[in-house]
Design brief:
It comes from Halorussus limi. By secondary structure, the protein is α/β, with parallel strands linked by helices. The protein has two domains: 235 residues, 3-Layer(aba) Sandwich (Rossmann fold); 81 residues, CBS domain Like (Alpha-Beta Complex). It is 37% helix and 21% strand. The protein has 16 helices and twelve strands. The strands form three sheets. A six-stranded mixed beta sheet has the order 6-7-8-3-9-10. 38% of the residues are buried. The structure holds adenosine-5'-triphosphate. The site of adenosine-5'-triphosphate (ATP) has 14 residues, from helix 1.
Length: 347
């Protein structure tokens, strides 16, 4: 089962007078993933914590399937909501199995049902149960611990899954692997997901919808394509780095993937493994922005797209090349995530 979450004119002012978010309204439809993204301190975590009532709104209403969450028992509510954070907080004195089974145990599931569920989730997370079930968290890598954290959050079939920078503490390769794995899992679990990140790339990859925040304000709530193709403000344009053209990127590779003379069809053949059958791949031109290319790749669910100029196929631009290039400018975002990872104590 999954649920709809609605924010209706929500403002949160902390006791010290800090306005964390102001007059936020948006709806997360059931079974979809909405990513909250924006610079440090813009109110993403506060918005997420209003859903599991770690924080309460100062004004406005948060609705869970149409019911004001103030009318729901916070303990019951939290058992229906999975929560994954950067510092995953596994219980070190408990085995992997005991960690994953925490909420089903609290909910009074019988042992057979719990055992089956734990094994099913460990399989899903690519951690063979026979090998991992009885291990203790300290014996696991950061990526494995984070997988256990996701399994624990999913254990009792939550209606909603909250994920606050879930992969933020991992090295880039592990992070990307977990993103890919989670995208597959997402299709199987059909849960409503609210996901916080400061990385626009992660947002574009993971979200059905993206909510871009700027100091307490929701500045655009749209699909990844709409964000890329129609940024509604200069802030959003800057945030997604929309001002680069493919020409400027200078990474169009003709030789590696194909002979240019083979033409467009053969490029599509070459990259065809990842092209969903029947889907049309619309090429880009060298003067298109990198965002347009990225947007088309996301639309067609592929990792490379042909660049065509005046009917001639110049080559193929890859998603990696665009992302690599966009990482070049100085960007303070990652420093924040590093400093947040220093404390990894249990909750
Ligand atoms: P980050 O990416 O750094 O985690 P964020 O976008 O998640 O940031 P929040 O953690 O929601 O932002 O914080 C929003 C604002 O509210 C910030 O100015 C922050 O300092 C402030 N804030 C957060 N928690 C509290 C608190 N308990 N008391 C007072 N101010 C707070």
């Amino acid at each position: 089962m999954s649920s709809t979450i609605e924010f209706d004119s929500v403002t949160k002012v902390y006791d010290d007078g800090t306005v964390a978010i102001e007059d936020i309204s948006f709806t997360v439809e059931e079974g979809t993933t909405t990513v909250l993204v924006g610079p440090s301190g813009c109110g993403k975590t506060t918005t997420m914590q209003l859903v599991n009532r770690l924080e309460e709104p100062t004004e406005g209403t948060v609705l869970f399937d149409g019911t004001d969450i103030r009318n729901l028992d916070p303990i019951d509510l939290r058992r229906d909501i999975g929560y994954v954070i950067q510092e995953i907080g596994l219980f070190d004195h408990m085995t992997v199995k005991e960690n994953v089974a925490t909420v089903p145990d609290l909910k009074g599931w019988n042992q057979d049902r719990i055992d089956d569920r734990v094994d099913e989730l460990l399989e899903l997370m690519d951690l063979p149960p026979a090998e991992y079930r009885d291990q203790y968290p300290e014996a696991l890598s950061g990526g494995q611990r984070q997988r256990i954290g996701v399994a624990r959050a999913l254990a009792a079939d939550p209606d909603v899954l909250l994920m606050d920078e879930p992969f933020g503490a991992l090295d880039p390769i592990t992070r990307e692997n977990l993103q890919d794995e989670f995208l597959e899992i997402q299709e199987e679990i059909n849960t409503t997901i609210l996901f916080v990140t400061h990385s626009i790339d992660e947002a574009l990859k993971m979200g059905d919808r993206i909510a871009i925040f700027d100091v307490g304000e929701l500045v655009q709530y749209d699909s990844p394509q709409a964000i890329l193709e129609e940024p509604k403000s200069e802030f959003v344009e800057d945030f997604i780095g929309a001002d680069r053209t493919l020409k400027e990127l200078q990474v169009i590779q003709a030789g590696d993937l194909m002979e240019p003379a083979d033409g467009y069809e053969s490029i599509v053949d070459t990259i065809g493994e990842s092209v969903n059958s029947g889907e049309e791949v619309v090429p880009v031109s060298p003067t298109d922005s990198t965002q347009v290319a990225l947007s088309r790749m996301i639309q067609a669910d592929i990792e490379a797209i042909p660049v065509v100029d005046d009917g001639e196929v110049l080559g193929v631009v890859t998603e990696d090349a665009i992302r690599d290039r966009r990482e070049e400018p100085t960007n303070g975002g990652d420093r924040q995530s590093v400093s947040k990872t220093t404390n990894t104590g249990d909750v």
